[in-house]
Write a structure and sequence with these properties.
alpha/beta, 14% strand, globular, binds farnesyl diphosphate
Length: 249
Amino acid sequence: MASRKTYDRPDLKIPVSLGVIMDGNGRWAKKRLLPRSAGHRAGAENLKELCRNCGRYGVKYLTVYAFSTENWTRPEDEVDQLMKLFVEFFRKYDPELEEEGIRVRFTGDIDSLPENLRKVCREGEERSAHRQKMQLIVAFNYGGRREIVNAARRIAERCISGEIAPEDITEQMMSDNMYLPDVPDPDFIIRPSGEMRISNFLLWECAYSEFWVSETLWPDFGYDELTQAFEAYTKRDRRFGGLSAEDKK
Ligand code: FPP
């Protein structure tokens, strides 16, 4: 029986900043004897649903892993289809994102993308800059290690110019040199499809994130699975390396 959607759940703790690794499109398609592109298409459709569900639940920052710096090694036609889907997604679903008050931003090595894709990113950000309810942050051509290297290079340049000394480098300075320093580190990271790995996603930012792995493949990860994940998050005792309130007593 399909569940009724309610976002009025004062018993739930909702993460302010949520990361989602959208994994399992290929397996979803294979199970249905469909081409992988059909899985990605269903995955894109589900991303729109996730945005709506997260916005309505009260998530403020939703970062989704759409395309990694390593995904370029996939067969050329799969990469082409993913790029087409990316362009189409914002054209097709922007009215709905607008209606839901969702601002779109991108994180990753956006400057290295071809001009048509950079334009989609630029226009998507400009068009949605005024929206207030939630930020959708699309990790695109994103790699956590590349982001850290990029930050290290920027800081190294300041050392070389004599503006700062190596001993002035702090964790906060590193955070300030990540792609989107104003976005809070993810409180919670969800990975559908059962794989227990981080795959180069938000490596610096995930230091104290809580994790949730679901067996459900990404295109099927809907309202019920999200609610289940939030129920689990509600029970987590976040200690950030310290003691729990209970143990301090
Ligand atoms: C991983 O599943 C998924 C991807 C590499 C692409 C994620 C992209 C989308 C959900 C499309 C929509 C995104 C935007 C921003 C329009 P996989 O193909 O590795 O799955 P598998 O492990 O089952 O093969």
